[in-house]
TrEMBL record:
Keyword Oxidoreductase: yes
A Gene Ontology molecular function term of the record: metal ion binding
Signal peptide: none
Protein EC: 1.1.1.262
One Pfam family here: PdxA
Highest rank taxon of the organism: Bacteria
Gene: pdxA
Name this protein carries in UniProt: 4-hydroxythreonine-4-phosphate dehydrogenase PdxA
Keywords for this protein: Metal-binding, NAD, Oxidoreductase
Claim: NAD is one of the keywords in the record: yes
InterPro entries: PdxA_fam (IPR005255)
Amino acid sequence: MHDSPLPVLAVTMGDAAGVGPEVIAGVWNNPQIHRICRPLVLGQPEIMRRACKLRKLDAEVVEIDSAGDFTASPSALPCLPVDGNSLLEIEAGISDARTGEVAFQAVVKAAELALAGKIQGMVTAPLCKAALHAAGHHYPGHTELLAELCGTPRFGMMLYLPPGVANHSPAGLGVAHVTLHNSLRESLDLISVEAIVEKCELASGMMRRLGVPEPRVGVAALNPHGGEEGLFGDEEIRIIGPAVEVAQAAGIHATGPLPADTLMIAARDGQFDAVVAQYHDQGHIALKLLAMHSAVNVTLGLPIVRTSVAHGTALDLAWQGIAETNGMIAAIETAAKLAASP
């Protein structure tokens, strides 16, 4: 067995018709990655060879049998196959059930390895939700799939900006979401005291793992101007305000509800370490406007480490050699940091 003290991170290839393979290939020769972890890829070896050629990466893709003894370096990319040849004739940029199936199997395999303690974390390249559904796997995304695989009832998504990336919080800035992959109309019915308190707890716990002793959590209002004392909606009075009080009573340094249009400015300027947004776009748009290509998707509540890039498969840009890679570097660095934290 390999005796390196560095954490082993499994990087899932994502949807082969999208930018996942080339994003992985595009960061592989970054020496910083190999200083902080021992990465391996779960996917289709030949697809990874094509991606390396596309990104002009002078690295040998080596098929491996297990996540045990392998060598990873800027010139050696170990790949644990999860597919035979089903992807070799796929068309770039086209949603396909075959790519959805392989992407699904890679995530399942990585989660199994992590749960078994054979790896210390997983980093996922983006999958295509339409391809995932076409393959018969009806999950809204990685977050819900991993929560089921891990048997985790309390979970959530956090978008995270590392310290110094468009924010002044000492350990970076995280944005957790009370509701996630739901329609906006449905999300309004899912916002509850219990759901908000849970996300405050998860966000605070994650920021502790990332180095903040007493995380400051700003909780977003739902309605314009924070509801204007009930004039524009009473969810702040009935639900969000009471939830913040419950979180405070539990020892969480939570503040809110705060008007969403100014909350992220305060967080960017260092007043908060984490923000709890009420629905997907309330959190995603604000944080991605700060630094979309450096953001990391972190799954909260799992017994394993999972991070990802914060962008999608970008089917319109795939296999042109132009995909942005900063997000994958940040995702690997964050996973390595979490793998080393208690």
